[in-house]
Amino acid sequence: MRSNRRRDTKPELAVRRMLHARGLRYRVDYAPGPDKRRRADIVFTRQKVAVFIDGCFWHGCPEHATIPKAHADYWVRKLARNRERDVETTAELEAEGWTVLRFWEHEDPKTVANAIAVRIHACDHSA
């Protein structure tokens, strides 16, 4: 597990490049809420938008999630807790007025960047 990146994964980098090219500026691997251990992948602090690009394995993608055969009981608990934590994190941030956007790593980076940009521009115009 140690060799798995917490930040700068290929899907994140692809989306960040596209957002940056659009002139959007953001924080990377930033803790927006009260629990400073829970960090979003991309955060727009002024607009209060937290973006998570979840890995299919670690976050239980309905299309691509798998469970290893070795130590299956451990992995079932571990991955279920990850999903629970995702729900808790989203609820905590939304309770504090944040908009939470979650995407899967397999989603098209261009589509993800477009969705984020639309949301950011909507937040800018509503202020």
Question: What's the arrangement of secondary structure elements?
Answer:
Layout: H1 10-21, E1 27-30, E2 40-44, E3 49-54, H2 56-59, H3 72-95, E4 99-104, H4 109-126
Parallel strand pairs: 3-4
Antiparallel strand pairs: 1-2, 2-3
Give a written overview of the molecule:
The protein has 127 residues and is of the alpha+beta class. The protein has a single domain (10-122), classed as 3-Layer(aba) Sandwich (Endonuclease, Chain A). The chain is built from 4 helices and 4 strands. It has helices spanning 10-21, 56-59, 72-95, 109-126, and strands spanning 27-30, 40-44, 49-54, 99-104. Strands 1-2-3-4 form a 4-stranded mixed β-sheet, sandwiched between helices. A hairpin with a 4-residue loop joins β2 (40-44) and β3 (49-54). The longest helix has 24 residues, at 72-95. The chain is globular. The N and C termini lie far apart (42 Å).
Condensed summary:
Helix content is 46%, strand content 17%.
Index terms:
127 residues, alpha+beta, Endonuclease, Chain A, 4-stranded mixed beta sheet, 4 helices, 17% strand, globular
Tell me the number of helical segments per DSSP (H or I, 4 or more residues long).
4
Tell the overall outline.
Answer: globular
Major beta sheet, specifics? 4 strands, mixed
Total number of strands? 4
Q: What percentage of the residues does DSSP assign to strands (E)?
A: 15-25%
Number of domains: 1
Subunit organisation of the chains: single chain
